[in-house]
């Protein structure tokens, strides 16, 4: 009996000591981070703006922190496959994710997700905005403004078609926002990606597209496409002579496709702060700004708290539109 009591006392003492030192152990881990390469998950295929931003910033942050940022593309289900992977990853800062407005739109679009966009993630920073731009093709030489688009759509409701990179993408939702605020009916034609959508737009099979500046810019420069308005609240540095949708007459229009970085929920705040600083410092470097400019990306940067507030605002806005328009994805 005596030996059992001694054993129990020893276990209690050990547990108490472990508990007492746990905060110091966590602090030590936070200070030492990163102790190995950082896995940066991109939940979409290579080649797009999101992938490019991750590679540009990851290269710089890796040099600053002394560990490489390994880009891992995990596409599928509108970003949900990659998001689910990161939500379930260890919360030690060695797995992070870049994502877009899907964090605000996927819950109302899909109804049920395998992860919670708020509870399962720690916001790190808003990174950049890449405006969409309403473009038309050479088959419509008389369409030179947003007012022309609205007039044509009202003349033939439901006939004019706009392409998108797929249901629920920012390109699709930009069109839904336009038809809602302009009070017009247009036919939405979803494609499996921006590439085939732009191809059909160039060929005249569809009339319009709210394309990303990244993919639209080469065709604008060649004259094959014509820009009518950007979707953001202010003009884009990449297309300074193109008006905003609000300037073009659609009051209240503001669709700003954003890119942000998140870590799994429970990641130590000190680690989140180190990731935030490495990325926001990278965005201030002249060569990074130049490379982001080349793809039409406008660096932003934010605190984790500002990112959380931004996500809440975007979620409320998109949930309202998606519900009103009855948009659902399987």
Description:
This protein is α/β, with parallel strands linked by helices and 330 residues long. It has two domains: 35-129 and 257-325, 3-Layer(aba) Sandwich (D-Maltodextrin-Binding Protein, domain 2), CATH 3.40.190.150; 132-230, Periplasmic binding protein-like II (D-Maltodextrin-Binding Protein, domain 2, 3-Layer(aba) Sandwich). It has eleven helices and eleven strands. It has helices at residues 2-32, 49-65, 80-87, 102-110, 146-155, 170-182, 194-203, 213-222, 269-282, 286-294, 304-325; strands at 38-42, 69-73, 95-99, 121-129, 132-137, 161-164, 187-190, 208-212, 225-230, 258-264, 298-299. The strands form two sheets. The chain has a six-stranded mixed β-sheet, sandwiched between helices. A five-stranded mixed β-sheet has the order 7-6-8-5-9. Helix 2 (49-65) packs across helix 9 and helix 4 packs parallel to helix 11.
Brief account:
Helix content is about 45%, strand content about 20%. With about 325 residues, it is α/β, with parallel strands linked by helices.
Number of helical stretches of at least 4 residues:
11
Spatial order of the strands forming the largest sheet: 2-1-3-10-4-11
Kindly report the average pLDDT value. 90
- Secondary-structure-derived class: alpha/beta
Count of extended strands: 11
For the report, how would you describe the main beta sheet?
A: 6 strands, mixed
Helix content: 40-55%
Quick one: overall form? Answer: globular
């Amino acid at each position: 009996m005596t030996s059992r009591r001694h054993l129990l006392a020893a276990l209690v003492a050990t547990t108490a000591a472990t508990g007492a030192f746990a905060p110091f152990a966590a602090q030590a881990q936070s200070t030492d981070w990163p102790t190995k390469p950082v896995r940066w998950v991109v939940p979409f295929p290579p080649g797009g703006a999101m992938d490019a931003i991750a590679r540009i910033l990851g290269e710089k942050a890796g040099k600053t922190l002394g560990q490489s940022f390994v880009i891992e593309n995990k596409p599928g289900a509108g970003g949900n496959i990659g998001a689910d992977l990161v939500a379930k990853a260890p919360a030690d800062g060695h797995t992070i994710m870049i994502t877009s407005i899907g964090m605000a739109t996927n819950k109302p679009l899909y109804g049920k997700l395998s992860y919670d966009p708020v509870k399962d993630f720690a916001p790190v920073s808003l990174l950049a905005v890449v405006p969409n731009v309403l473009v038309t093709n050479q088959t419509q030489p008389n369409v030179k403004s947003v007012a022309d688009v609205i007039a044509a759509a009202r003349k033939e409701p439901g006939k004019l078609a706009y392409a998108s990179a797929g249901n629920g993408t920012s390109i699709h939702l930009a069109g839904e926002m336009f038809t809602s605020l302009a009070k017009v009916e247009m036919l939405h034609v979803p494609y499996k990606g921006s590439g085939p959508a732009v191809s059909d737009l160039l060929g005249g099979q569809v009339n319009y597209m709210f394309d990303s500046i990244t993919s639209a810019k080469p065709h604008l420069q060649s004259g094959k496409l014509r820009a009518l308005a950007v979707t953001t609240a202010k003009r884009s540095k990449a297309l300074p002579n193109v008006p905003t949708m609000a300037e073009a007459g659609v009051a209240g229009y503001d669709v700003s496709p954003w890119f942000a970085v998140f870590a799994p929920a429970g990641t130590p705040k000190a680690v989140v702060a180190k990731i935030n600083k490495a990325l926001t410092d990278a965005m201030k470097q002249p060569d990074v700004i130049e490379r982001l400019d080349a793809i039409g990306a406008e660096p932003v940067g934010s605190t984790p708290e500002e990112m959380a507030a931004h996500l809440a605002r975007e979620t409320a806005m998109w949930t309202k539109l998606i519900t009103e328009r009855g948009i659902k994805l399987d």
